[in-house]
């Protein structure tokens, strides 16, 4: 996508966001909402600048947690997807249980992890990884199953084994699907990291937001929320950039699911 194409994609949401912020500021300036209830964007920005070192320290802790959990969840999702793809019997038994596991709220699992693993980094990383691995695993499984049947039949005719089929046909075909899963996981990872910090942490943006809300400091809560949004967008953008780098053959008209039209 060229610069003009990128601009056409970015400017509508950017313009709408700026319009919303201007309306928010106007409502605050007119005194229609009390500042202690909903501070203005400028007040939030001033507060963020005033506590920037402390805010960035908490952001760094959340970024570390998110990246470790995202990497661990991605690795687990890829490994499990390959295992289930190569062993259909295991997939038939395990896949429904994986889907069922996603119906358990992470706010319930988090305290159990703290009981089992203590107040260390490990339970929080596990919580983020648990959220990230499922979209990666499902997307990868879908991609591995969508190989061209004619090419698959040809490779079997020339004597390709399961490993060669996986590396030379199925895995390359699954890459667009994989990156779709990675972008979903990237979006969820920061949010799950914040929730993990709510449950039990001594630093991080989730911990900072919890303290600020209990201290009736909404400007600090909004400043932390803005950083969470920025981190989520940055991780999503990194996944999208990696997709463009590794899947140069993908047509520009490919659908959102990742499969070329």
From TrEMBL:
TM spans (from-to): 9-27, 65-87, 94-119, 125-145, 177-201, 221-242
Subcellular location: Cell membrane
Keywords: Cell membrane, Membrane, Transmembrane, Transmembrane helix, Transport
Domain ABC transmembrane type-1 stretches: 59-239
Membrane topology category: Multi-pass membrane protein
The UniProt record lists the keyword Transport: yes
Family of the protein in this entry: Belongs to the binding-protein-dependent transport system permease family.
Species for this entry: Paenibacillus cisolokensis
Lipid biosynthesis among keywords: no
Annotated protein name in UniProt: ABC transporter permease
């Amino acid at each position: 996508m060229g610069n003009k194409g990128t601009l056409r994609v970015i400017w509508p949401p950017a313009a709408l966001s700026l319009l919303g912020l201007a309306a928010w500021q106007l409502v605050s300036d007119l005194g229609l909402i009390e500042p202690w209830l909903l501070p203005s964007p400028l007040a939030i920005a001033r507060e963020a600048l005033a506590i920037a070192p402390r805010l960035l320290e908490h952001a760094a802790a959340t970024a570390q947690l998110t990246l470790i959990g995202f990497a661990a969840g991605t690795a687990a999702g890829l490994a499990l997807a390959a295992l289930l793809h190569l062993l259909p019997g295991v997939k038939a038994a395990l896949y429904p249980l994986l889907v069922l596991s996603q119906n358990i709220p992470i706010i319930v699992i988090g305290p159990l992890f703290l009981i089992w693993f203590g107040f260390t980094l490990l339970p929080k990383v596990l919580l983020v990884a648990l959220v990230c691995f499922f979209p990666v695993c499902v997307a990868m499984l879908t991609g591995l199953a969508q190989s061209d049947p004619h090419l698959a039949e040809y490779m079997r005719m020339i004597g390709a084994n399961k490993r060669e089929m996986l590396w030379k046909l199925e895995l390359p075909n699954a890459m667009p699907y994989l990156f779709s899963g990675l972008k979903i996981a990237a979006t969820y990872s920061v949010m799950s990291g914040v929730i993990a910090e709510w449950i039990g942490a001594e630093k991080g943006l989730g911990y900072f937001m919890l303290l600020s809300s209990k201290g009736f400091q909404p400007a600090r809560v909004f400043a932390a929320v803005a950083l969470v949004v920025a981190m989520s967008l940055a991780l999503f953008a990194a996944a999208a950039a990696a997709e463009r780098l590794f899947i140069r053959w993908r047509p520009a008209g490919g659908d959102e699911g990742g499969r070329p039209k």
